[in-house]
Amino acid sequence: MEPTPDRQVEDIAIRHPNFNPNEVSFVFNKYSDEDKEKIYKSLLEDFKRLFFQTEPPINKSILYQKAHLVSCLGYNYCIILDNDFKNFVIWYLKKLKRPQLINLPSDIFLKSLATSWEIFIEAITITYNVTEYMKSFHPGFNKIEHFDIFAVLLFRNIIFQDGSVHKCFQARLSELKQVTIRDNKQVTADRLLIESISKMCYALKMDDCYKSRVKPLFLKLTTEYFQLLRENYLLIYHDYNYFINANAKIVEEMDRIESKLDTDSINEIRDIITTELVLKNINAIMESCSVDYMLKNDQYENLKHLYNILCSVDGGLKVMFDSMRPYFCEFGTSIVLTNEGLPNDLTCIQGLLNLKGKFDYLMNNVFNKNKLFYDIVGNEFSVFLKLNSLIPTYLCQFIDEKLRKGKYMFFKNHTPADLFKVAFLAKRLQDKSLFEDLYESSLAMRLLDNVNVNVRMENTVIRIFKRVYADPCDNSLFVSRIQRMCKDKFLSSNFIKRKYYEHGLVDKVIWGIMRPFVLNVDVLSAVYCRVVSPQPMCKVPSFAMNAFKHFNELYSRYETKKNLTLLPQYGTAELEVTCYSQLGAIKRSYDEENSKTKIERGERKIKVVVSTYEMFVLDLFNSNDFLTGETILKETMIPEDSLLVSLGKLVNGHKLLIKRPICTEIKLSDTFYVREDL
Question: What range(s) does the Cullin family profile domain occupy (predicted)?
Answer without folding.
Answer: 420-579
